[in-house]
C-alpha cells in the first residue's frame, strides 16, 4: 500500500520519513515517491494492504544500480490475537525503460535476481540500507 496511505500515526509517519532519509543518505540524487501505485481499480487489486510501499526515482538511468526507479515494499504480518504488527521482510525491485531489471528479497536469500543487477559496491549499499530499515521497524 502506498506509504502516504500508511502514514496514519506519528510513529509510522516518522519511520517512513526515516526510511526515505536513509535511502537518500546512500543515494542523494534519488527522489522519493510515497504514492508509487496508481489509484485505479486494477492496481488496487494487486496492492498488499499489509505493506508500506515507497518508490525512488533517479534523474536518469543509474548504470551502477541498473535502474531508473526502485520500488521498496516493506511487508508486515499482523498477529490476530495480540494485534501486534511486525516486519516479515522487504522486497526491492529495480526498473528501467525496459521494465523490471532485478529483484532483491530479505525474505529469501538476500541475493539479487534478474537480467541486469547492480554493481557489487551498489549491491552492498542497498543491502546495508535494508538492514537499517529492518532495525528501524524491529
Task: Give an overview in words.
This protein is an alpha+beta fold and 138 residues long. The chain has one domain. It has four helices and six strands; from the N terminus they run H-H-E-H-E-E-E-E-E-H. Strands 1-2-3-4-5-6 form a six-stranded antiparallel sheet, with helices on one face. Helix 2 runs antiparallel to helix 4. The longest helix has 18 residues. The protein is globular and about 45 Å long. The model has no long low-confidence stretch (mean pLDDT 88).
Map the helices and strands.
Elements: H1 3-6, H2 10-26, E1 31-33, H3 41-46, E2 51-62, E3 67-78, E4 85-96, E5 99-105, E6 113-114, H4 120-137
Antiparallel strand pairs: 1-2, 2-3, 3-4, 4-5, 5-6
Keywords:
138 residues; alpha+beta; 35% strand; globular
Q: Quick summary of this structure?
A:
The chain is of the alpha+beta class and 138 residues long. It has helices spanning 3-6, 10-26, 41-46, 120-137; strands at 31-33, 51-62, 67-78, 85-96, 99-105, 113-114.
- What's the SSE pattern? HHEHEEEEEH
What is the terminal separation in angstroms?
Answer: 19 Å
Structural shape: globular
Please summarize the sheet with the most strands. 6 strands, antiparallel
Total number of helical segments?
A: 4
- Fraction in helix: 25-40%
Total number of beta strands? 6
Number of domains: 1
User: On the 0-100 scale, what is the average pLDDT?
Assistant: 88
Strand order of the largest sheet: 1-2-3-4-5-6
- The Rg value, from CA coordinates, equals 15 Å
How big a fraction of the residues is strand?
A: 25-35%
Summing up helix and strand content along with how strands pair, one would put the structural category as alpha+beta
Low-confidence stretches: none
Amino acid at each position: 500500500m502506498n506509504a502516504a496511505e500508511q502514514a496514519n500515526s506519528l510513529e509510522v509517519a516518522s519511520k517512513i520519513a526515516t526510511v526515505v532519509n536513509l535511502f537518500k543518505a546512500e543515494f542523494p540524487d534519488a527522489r522519493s515517491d510515497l504514492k508509487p501505485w496508481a489509484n485505479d481499480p486494477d492496481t488496487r487489486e494487486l496492492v498488499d494492504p499489509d505493506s508500506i510501499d515507497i518508490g525512488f526515482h533517479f534523474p536518469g538511468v543509474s548504470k551502477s544500480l541498473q535502474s531508473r526507479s526502485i520500488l521498496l515494499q516493506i511487508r508486515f504480518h499482523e498477529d490476530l490475537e495480540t494485534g501486534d504488527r511486525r516486519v516479515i521482510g522487504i522486497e526491492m525491485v529495480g526498473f528501467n525503460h525496459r521494465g523490471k531489471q532485478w529483484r532483491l528479497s530479505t525474505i529469501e536469500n538476500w541475493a539479487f535476481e534478474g537480467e541486469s543487477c547492480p554493481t557489487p559496491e551498489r549491491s552492498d549499499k542497498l543491502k546495508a540500507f535494508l538492514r537499517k530499515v529492518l532495525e528501524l521497524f524491529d
